[in-house]
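Q: Please design a sequence for this.
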């Protein structure tokens, strides 16, 4: 191949490689930005979780609440549990903080506030075989009581989430709207409160099992994209070296 032909080939290759190199570098930079965002999110959640509990937002403010603004907020509320309308949400607890784990249920109980509004409270986890109401009768607090816990937005359903079975009092996501409808609860909050650990007399339900794990692989992803960009640059350099005039 003549020298002019080799030069033309190198220029064509460079024109094809440059956009790919820019794309790979751009993806690496994007992952670094995502890393910065994720670290900020983790710090913000930790601050909310460990903050002293604040008063639950008033029912009049519920329609304007944004999940990103209240998720994991540590709150307290005074009201009365309605144990006759409990729901169970299937959950396989893989890394329990308390004694029990494995397959079981999250016990969701309506908590009536003064004025008539209701908050659905995730009282905690019960393992299969100990999920009957009679097995945890000691946890039932009569009359008005004050609870603390973390505000959580509705969980997302996926294509693989089984259909709920309201007739059996069984759900597969913590979706306050669906659970409230199934239980016939009016004026229910659009969020759920995960009760703190140690608030259920008798030990069950096992509170404080809110998952606080946030996958953070953005740095490794950034290194991958930058590594591919560097590899492309090296390969391009070798090609250009071989295509140089003799």
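A: Design:
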């Amino acid at each position: 191949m003549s020298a002019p032909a080799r030069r033309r080939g190198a220029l064509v290759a460079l024109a094809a490689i440059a956009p790919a190199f820019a794309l790979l570098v751009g993806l690496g930079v994007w992952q670094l930005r995502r890393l910065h965002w994720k670290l900020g999110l983790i710090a913000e959640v930790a601050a909310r979780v460990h903050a002293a509990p604040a008063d639950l937002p008033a029912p009049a403010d519920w329609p304007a609440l944004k999940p990103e603004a209240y998720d994991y907020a540590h709150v307290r509320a005074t009201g009365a549990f309605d144990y006759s309308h409990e729901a169970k949400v299937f959950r396989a607890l893989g890394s329990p903080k308390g004694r029990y784990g494995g397959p079981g249920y999250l016990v969701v109980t309506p908590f009536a506030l003064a004025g008539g509004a209701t908050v659905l409270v995730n009282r905690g986890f019960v393992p299969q075989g100990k999920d009957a109401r009679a097995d945890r009768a000691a946890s039932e607090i009569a009359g008005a009581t004050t609870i603390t816990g973390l505000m959580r937005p509705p969980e997302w359903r996926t294509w693989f989430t089984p259909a709920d079975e309201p007739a059996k009092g069984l759900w597969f996501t913590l979706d306050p709207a669906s659970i409230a409808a199934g239980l016939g609860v009016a004026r229910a909050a659009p969020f759920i409160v995960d009760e703190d650990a140690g608030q259920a007399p008798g030990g069950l339900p096992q509170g404080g099992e809110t998952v606080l794990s946030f996958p953070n692989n953005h740095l490794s992803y950034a290194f991958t994209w930058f590594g591919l960009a560097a590899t492309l640059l090296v390969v391009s350099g070798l090609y250009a070296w071989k295509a140089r005039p003799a």
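Q: Thanks. Anything notable?
A: The radius of gyration is 27 Å. Residues 3-50 form the longest helix (48 residues).
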